[in-house]
Amino acid sequence: MLRLITTMTFFISLAYAQISKIVWMNYQATGCVTCHRIASVKMNDTLYIFGTFHYNNKMNPFLIAVDSSLNIKWFKAFSHNLPNLDITAIHKVNDSLILVSGGHSIGSGVCSSQNCNFFGLFNVKNQSFIWSKSFSQNQTYGTFMDIAQISTNSFILLAHRDDYDNNSVIVKIDLNGNVIYQKLISVVFRNRCTSLSSINDKLFISCFFGDGVYHQSRIIAVDTLGNAIFSKKLDFQFLPYRIFRTSDGFLVVGLYGAGDPYHIFIYKIDFNGNFMWAKRYESSLGSSRAFNIAQDWDGNYLISGYIEVNSTTSYPLVMKIDNNG
User: Fold this and answer.
1) Which domains does the chain have, with CATH numbers?
2) What is the pTM of this model?
């Protein structure tokens, strides 16, 4: 277990839990915690939260298991021999296994890109990785941003390439981590893709590309072979962090603004990528950001992030919206 230093509070929302409570946890860490996306998954009566904390000028992953009464069952912080390791997504495979993805920042010349990838299969029962992989300098996948399952033993990893053309790629793997194929997502010049969600035989991917000081968002739909179905430019300039499937479409949660103050922005589309509604949420305290979204027991949606008052002060944030925002 890593030796930890100062106390910091962060927010976690219960994904699909059968209770309606806000969960606050304190643990010893240094640096920014709420400025990272916290990946969580509900399995039986336990919520597993994979995240990242800063310690000794290094990013390290942690895993917390919480029962349905909000008691911490166990928690672990993982050491590693990489300069940094950031967990960005987890996906439930079955009642024992979760697939974990992320990346680490390393020096130039060690990998072909500044951000190299990481993914692994974790057994929650014995609290250990079965296998973990990071591609060599000959691979150009970049950091893995999200995970979707397309069959019993097949998964899609979404990655961003920080080398060459700065475009994104989807990588299909099996349960042993073997690569089946990779496809470059090259709809516009230098598009960065942040999240994906699957429905039937389609993958919906949230992306953006630079447009001066603003971010131009785009939704790209591909089939499970990586072939493009459609690409649609969204009507507002915002940075998308997460795409989440609902009963009648998708919610895209992101960041609005070209500088302080930033605001939370939510964009709703149907299953064909058509615009339904968009809303901006502002805080009187300062800039606000949202990174995580989950459906609560009552069918509404929990969104968590943080409010930045100034360079040294920030507060965890939770908001709850219905299907119409």
Assistant:
1) 1-78 (no CATH), 80-186 (2.40.128), 194-325 (2.120.10.30)
2) 0.76
